[in-house]
Amino acid sequence: MGMLDKFKDQFHSTTPSYDFKPSSSSHDIQLGPNAVFRYRQQRGINLGSWFALERWICPNVFRNAKQPGQSDFDVAGGKDPKRTLEEHWDTWITEDDFKWIKGKGFNSVRIPIAYFHLCGPLPEVLKGTDYEPFHHIYEGAWGRIKRAVELAGSFGLGVLIDLHGVAGAQNPDAHAGLSIGKVGLWDKHSNLASTSLSLRFLASELSNVPHIVGLELLNEPANNPKLQSWYKSTIDEIRSIVSSDFPIYISDAWDTNHYAQFVGSRNDFVVLDHHLYRCFTNDDKSKSGSTHANEIKSSFQNTFKGQSENAKGNIVIGEWSSSLDNSSLQGNDQQKDAQRREFTHAQLDLFESHSAGYWYWTYKKGEGWDAGWSAKDASRAEILPNWVGGKQFKGPPPDNVKEHELQRGHNSHKSYWASNGGSPDPEVYAPGFSQGWDDSLLFLSHQSGTSQIGFVDQWIGKRRIEYESHTGRKLGKAAWEWEHGFKQGIESSLKICTQ
């Protein structure tokens, strides 16, 4: 049975997981090909406004919305909403779009959804919320979300499901589901109960799907004294039904330093999501595109590198773009595109070096040309590279190449430490190197296409536990040498086996 067949068997079950019993993934999975989807460097794209709507992306969907006509709530309260929404869900993203995404080298998609999209199999998610009257409108959404996940998987694409809107709204923006400009998540027990129910349902339904790369708890929540404790308790709830190896993504709530420390202090697979935009503030608008690019390469790179280290490498850029304010762009259209291109490439270089993944916002817009926000337009303008998938796998080298590289690295390691006070156990470098080399090839040769280990520290931590279990040997103070060898094995394989 192939991966997609297994996925269909699990995901198309007619019995929803209402009781949230621990899934078969509640025990940590063995590292292998199925784990590649979750641990590889995510080079992704957002499928914005497919389910969680934004008027500036697809204004046509709002043609019959009630005033102020900015959110899903306004569409649901307008004229003929069920037909309007189902037509949009069925046509906004098609198989041809997934072909384009795969063809450009992206290996994952981030799909923003909201709690009310779950009401078909989980009607109680609407109880006591603003969307309680709209069950009949959204009851068909979950089936379409499942088909979207299935279609992405058929192209070898991973899927990050992002809970973009929750009951009461976690931020004042219309993309959270309401147009009232208020954060109401914390105001009512029913809002919090709905959010908990939504996340437990999603984790239970998705955790056994190999190409689901994670679940994002909240999109861009307004920072709040209650947020961190809510993160802790909610992660605990989810861990009671899914494995510690299932990736849970949390937003940094625009406080990256603080939440990098929070993520770095955890032992389970939790990932920090930072959104990088440079076009909204007065300070952003006062700088040219080239200045922004240079800052990304210098001061911000140093800051972000430190944040990544504090998060033990578990940090991604869940949203970014090529967009700059008009005041940041000088010259004719060609010159403006050149500045966007410089800005875009500076960001990509940063993400490749210091993050475990990134998702461009957004795939496309419904009306007009926009090479700042639409990946399709940015690609046509050659602002985005034609290929964003990193280096291509050349194929496995002859067996003696690995042995040669291992011996060369091992000799260098022993020689250095012999001249610098010695080390706890230089002999553990070799098995670490060998495992790192083999695992890197596992990613590079994956059936979904060339991949690269992205969550390196998370992966190494599990491999180290396996090594100690299989050998009956606790590495203790020598653990860093095994890990150093592992990382050099990865680096060596990438140098030799990719082009």
Automatic annotation (TrEMBL):
Pfam families documented for this protein: Cellulase
Protein name according to UniProt: Glycoside hydrolase family 5 domain-containing protein
Family in the record: Belongs to the glycosyl hydrolase 5 (cellulase A) family.
Domain (Glycoside hydrolase family): residue spans on this chain: 85-364
PANTHER family documented for this protein: GLUCAN 1,3-BETA-GLUCOSIDASE 3, GLUCAN ENDO-1,6-BETA-GLUCOSIDASE B
Taxonomic source organism: Kwoniella shivajii
SUPFAM superfamilies, sorted: (Trans)glycosidases
Alphabetic keyword roster: Glycosidase, Hydrolase
